[in-house]
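Page 42, continued from yesterday. The earlier attempt failed because a stray header line got pasted into the input along with the sequence. Redoing it now with the clean sequence only.
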Amino acid sequence: MSTKPTQTNAATSRKAEEAYLQQTLAVVEDNLSHYGREVARMQEDIDEMLAHYHDNDAEVLTILNNTVTLHDHMKRALQRNEKAQNKPYFGRIIFHDESLDKTESLYIGKGGIAKDSTHQIVIDWRAPVAGVYYENGLGKCSYQAPGEAKIAIDLQLKRTYEIESGKLLDYFDSEVIANDDLLTKYLAKNKQAVLSEIVATIQKEQNEIIRKSPYHNIIVQGVAGSGKTTVAMHRISYILYNYEDRFRPDDFYIVGSNRILLDYITGVLPDLDVYGVRQMTMEELFVRLLYEDWDKEKYTIRSVNRTVPSAASSSGSANSGADESIKGSAVWFQALEDYCRRLEERTISCKSVYLNPKQFVEGLLDGKFGVFDTTGGQTNPCDLVCLLEGEAVERYLRQNPTVSIQSKINMLNDRLRNKIKEEFLGKGIKYTDPEKKAILKAYRRHYGANVWKKSIYELYHDFLVKQNADGATIAIPDTAFDVYDLAALAYLYKRVKETEVISEAHHIVIDEAQDFGMMAYHVLHACIRGCTYTVMGDVSQNIHFGYGLNDWEALRELLLPAPADTFGLLKKSYRNTVEISDFATRILRHGRFFVYPVEPVLRHGSPVQTRQLPDRPALIRSVADTCRGWREKGWDTIAVICRSLSDAAKTAGELSAWLEGIESDPEKAVFGNGIMVLPVDYTKGLEFDAVLLLNPTREDYPVEDGHAKLLYVAATRALHELCILHTGNLTGLIADPVPEHPLPADKAPTANSPLSSAAPVRTAHTNPRKSAGTRTETADTTRAPHALSAEQRKSGRSLQRRAAHTPAKQNPALPKPENNAPVMQDTFPEFGDMPATEILRPAGHGKIDLAVRWSAKQPDGLYLHSRYGVLRLSPVGSAIVRVTFAKSGQIEDRFHPAIAVRRTERTWMYKESATTIDLMTDELLVQTDKTSGAIRFMTRDKKLLFAERNKECRQLEGAAGGRMKIWLYPDWPKNETVYAMGAGETKGMNIRKTARYISHKDQPVFNAHNSMAPGQKPQAVTAPGTLPFLLSEKGYGIVLAADSPVICCDLPTYGTYLCAEQEVQMDYYFIAGKRPATILNAYAYLCGKL
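This time it went through. Structure tokens are written below.
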């Protein structure tokens, strides 16, 4: 592709932009005229050829096929240009290609627009170079060209446009694609308008998933509203554009949880230039894998049975109500595998096969010519010829576990026939033709018939009978099958009956993947070979109770065995307003299960409404009035969500008397503008401008895990408005206060989880002395700082014990704690506890501006002011720097009671450049980035020791009692080991790739209610003890002067941060030292214990 070159000073003014837009629209008009003529001409040619085509005219058939293909391509080019009339592009990048020493300006649109065969005036968003727009900030970066190494560039401009009806409304230059203001503006539009802007607002984390190689598997955990379905559809579009030699549309299957979702996907894909991709439910996919064995006139598909009765029904009907959730598990698949293995052992003999030539002798017997057995029933072993060794048969069966039983039978029969023919050609016994014919006939079906005679439905019935005999309580279906019945039947067909391997999909995209149990995935993996997967889901939305996935571990083990396979996270929710997101999260917190964190985009809207009506008629009238009001606001897509299919059908019938266009049969509903009345199950994967939850009672939604997830799904369907109408007895998931329980030990992330540390942990606030049975100690290998030498570890432990137990030099008389003191010691978690999930969730916030606006040197340090707050850097010694940050305009003059050294180093300097402000002591260079406000601690020869994250390096949010919850975001390299130091006999622990409390039960607590004049000694609520202290193998330590419990989190799901729950301001000390013992010495000195 060639692009129109520009000079380095490419025109970027509004006048130049408007001129380019008009030039582009002129090209679009020319293309429309040209493509329109070509499409009409080709259609005439096709019609003429069809009128004169004869079956035996191969030449005309070839021309016809080629013309139809060209006609289809031309029609799609025409459609792309028709869509471009309103908004031909949405973005622009200007960069300098360092290898070519050339500056390029590229406009990016939903489809490519070409002036002619050599001039592309708008590039397609799927082009490799367009990835720069989504992924990179200004400056040095690169992109991957097809079949080439990465191309290095210097990105000079990234611009996003607002264009409507061919008019330029505005444009934005930003480091980040779709910055907060622009993204919020897009999301505030109605559903249909938001859909039209999706390509323009793809975020970096979404783009990374879209552009992953299709030759490897990827599982994506995405919170509600994170764009999972959108990302999946754009990924298909990207793959078809960039890998057209390997993937065609019919190589893809899209698997969804319900037909409404699939219909919605069908309507959106053409807008992404995707045609001909097959979509199906999981049930339909398994039916497809049954091939000729599925009789749609005889058999039907039913929903899974979710009831849990006291005992299995003796009737054997599919609706007997047995507890069938085991059918969705990996254990059930293993049982089915074992059944097939035993069936194979019974069916295929592994005994050696012999030929006795004396049994096949041509001659005359009783006046008849023929081939006769002359052994007289007596076999001499010396007469036998071995045709096939039993050991060879066993080896073949063992080496081909995925080949069907019938295929093995056919192969062994063929092998035996070939061995017999080899015997005929041997130099030993000479066989006559009648003898040969008789031998071949006798052995031709030695291992079985060449077609499996028994029905797979009979096999499945036999399998279920055996499982029930072994203690299962599974209802045996007759003619109606659920998804796991169909999965089992598909596996039986593949493992037992299949003789011809049919090529199915090359890439399967599964949406709402958490709704299917491991049984389904094991069967897919077994039945469709040579296929890769894109799996999208959210385990917090598993509404299939005992059947679906509550975590990803088993599926990751199955589908992500290779290093290039990927587990991705989408944490940010773009769908809901803050009010709706908070409401839905409170519902989820009634459950006792692990929850992936949600980071809502800061977009406020109307409060969630909850209203009680006196009776059913009043309820229906209120529903109608609410929906009319939403329509008047301009909301195009509205959902009334009921608990069940029967409730939805009843409500739709009642509403039809008040509102027009209500579909009375949810099974026939099609997603689109208007009002839809749906059961909650049918809303999975969908979103609406406004949602009304109808009469969620305690009976329909009891307070337990499954129904918490179900109601969460319903609430998170809403983009802008959410209303709950009921007639009383409102579910406790909404009406009751959120319980303050930690995550149960058995629900915490596992040791192999992407959310966990390297070793099992106990949950937060668990007292090991009171509940020893639930505590799992971590191994010493994760607790002790192994990077240190033996001498250093010994010295470190000694100093740590001394620092913990030496009394501080202050007044031992301590005041009695006040009732409203911020943190009391009896609520302190223990060192090493894992925080509860709800505590780990990062807070949503607006844009944080930490850019340094001005600086000033004061006697107590260097002050750096930003819009967000004020930062003070105070050198305590040549290797110790105190960092204090307050969100308000003034730092409070206070020292933590555990800090004994309250001096400021006199000999330090600072200098300011265009980009940084540098503070220098004899040993340290402390550099603050003026744009981001992030701090970098270096040695004087500029060796980096520690850095705060360059974007949003620190954050403060309001907490109880007028205090602040603080976050510090370290930028730790992946290979850096950092230890949280224990106190007394408590061992230190490696805090990388885990989340733990690093504070101590004896941690001193500052009493904020005692005013303190400068120079006055502070008071504490508890006796002085040990402050949280981190020690890095890179040669530094961090002491957190905190009053409240401190968390160190380093998990991909939540990010890397240090967090204290209730503080007056951020306050920490950085200590540098070449040896751990030096750093520990400085820590003891700082606390007055050396």
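Notes: Residues 613 and 619 are 6 Å apart (CA to CA).
Reminder to self: strip header lines before submitting.
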